[in-house]
Amino acid sequence: MEKIKLVVATHNRHKFEEIAALMPSGVELQPYWELSGEEIPETGDTLTENARQKSAYVRQHFSADCFADDTGLEVEALDGAPGVYSARYAGPGATYRDNVDKLLQAMAGVQDRRARFVTVISLWLHGREYLFEGSVEGTILESPQGEDGFGYDPVFRPQGCDRSFAQMTLEEKGRISHRARATEAMIAFLSEYLKNTHR
Ligand code: ITT
Questions:
Q1: pLDDT 10s digit of each residue in the chain, 199 long?
Q2: What angle do CA 38, 187, 156 make, to 5 degrees?
Q3: Spatial contact of 34 and 23, defined as CB atoms under 8 Å apart
């Protein structure tokens, strides 16, 4: 059976690993860094704009079917911040730790700790673009918990769970995360697509 080959338009190895763990065997993934060391531009004001910009860049420069994931953490008490600016919340070149520290400072003494992760995926396949979205609700912890995952995982506890994302294995996070939900929506689409092209 023919395979769908997709470049994943990301520089983020954690993200690639999470996505790869969910992919069925009919889809072959190649990380962007195997193609190029050039930075993929990401200058939009929304997750959708950024996801579209990243996938369009890889499609244009490498003529490859591909997809990009753009993700943000939206905190209720901070009016949706850091949101689309999650990567540089503590300033340009901020580390994950800097961003977490800034978030915990901003949330000091705040009672309402509700937050959500949102992922938008832009997929280019055979000359057409498709968008998928996934989110997960949760709360911001008072201090970092756990060593796994990346980004804001140590301070995000998904609803209905007693642990942070950073206290979960890749598989556990992959059953409930924003990224898993968006990726599963894309996988459902790709499975249908594969079925239809083999009719
Ligand atoms: P690419 O754009 O190269 O894919 P990135 O790390 O810049 O990688 P995003 O712009 O999508 O990815 O994500 C912005 C930030 O949001 C990221 O730097 C992390 O701090 C955070 N983030 C994204 N996904 C996350 C996740 O699953 N868990 C915790 N934090 C996450």
A1: 578 999 999 999 999 999 999 999 999 999 999 999 999 999 999 999 999 999 999 999 999 999 999 999 999 999 999 999 999 999 999 999 999 999 999 999 999 999 999 999 999 999 999 999 999 999 999 999 999 999 999 999 999 999 999 999 999 999 999 999 999 999 999 999 988 876 5
A2: 70
A3: no
Q: Token digits for 120?
A: 């938008």
**Of residues 15, 42, 11, the one with CA closest to residue 183:** 15
> To test the ligand 1 pocket, which listed residue (11, 15, 54) has its Cβ within 8 A of the most ligand atoms?
15
d(CA 72, CA 99): 12
